[in-house]
Protein: Neuromedin U
Organism: Echinicola soli
Amino acid sequence: MKKYLFILSMATVMLSSRLFAQDGKEASSSTQANNPLANMTALNFHNYYIPRLTDAPKEAYLNNSWVRFAKPISEGKWLLRVSAPLNTTGIPNSADGTVNSINGLGDVNAFMSYNFISKSTATVGIGPNLTAPTATETALGTGKWQGGFAMVAFIAKSAIFQFGGLVTWQASFAGDSDRPGTNVAAIQPFYFWQLGKGTYLRGSPIWAFDFKNDAFSVPLGLGIGKVVKVENTMFNLFIEPQYSMLHAGTQPQFQLFTGINLQFMGK
C-alpha cells in the first residue's frame, strides 16, 4: 500500500512538472492563488503522504487526502470552507509484522470566516469552527462533535513575498461517551516567494497541539509551486516536503504534501 500511495504522490508531481513548463501571465493572479480568503469559489485536492511516524514501528504509515471547498458569501465578507478527509492508516501487526491498512472517510470539518479586513494587500477573518464525527472507522476519527474558532490572515503588500497564517482551536462537546474527549489546536503559518512566470517557493506546515494527550508536532516545510490560468480557472499545483523539528507522542516525522488548488474566477 505504501508503494501505491507514493506512486500517487509522484503522479501529482509529474502533472505539476508539465504545467511548470507553461508561462504564467499575471503576477497578481499568482499572488491571490495562495490566498485562502480570496473572493473566489475554490476547490482544493490535498494529500499528505507520511511514510515515517515518531514513537511508532517503522512499518507504520499514514496517508491523508483532503477535498476542500470554499465559497465566498455576501460579496466576499463571509467565506465558508468545508474539508472532507479520506484517510489511510497502516498499522503493523505485532504478531507477524504484517501491515494492516484501514481506509475510509474521516471527520468532516467546516468553518465560516467573517473577513473584517478585506483589501487587495491584506485579508483577515475569524469565525466558528465545527467538526462532525463522520469517520467510517473508529481509527479514522474521534467519535466526537467538536467546536471552536478559526482565524486566518493573508498579507500581500509585496508582489514578491506574501505570508499569513491559519489558527484553529476546537474541543469536544458531544458524541460517543465511550470515546475520550478532545482539546486540540493548530497553527499553520504560510509563506510564498514569487520567482516569476507563475512559479513560486512555498511553505505551509501545520503545527498541531493535542492538549489532552500532551502531544504536538512542529514541522517546517519548503516546496515549489506553479500557477497557471486556463480560461476562467486558476490552477495552482505544488509539492512540499515537511520535516518535524519538534514533536511528542506519535506524530509525522516526515511527510510529503502535494496539492492541486482550483480557483474559479468570477464565481
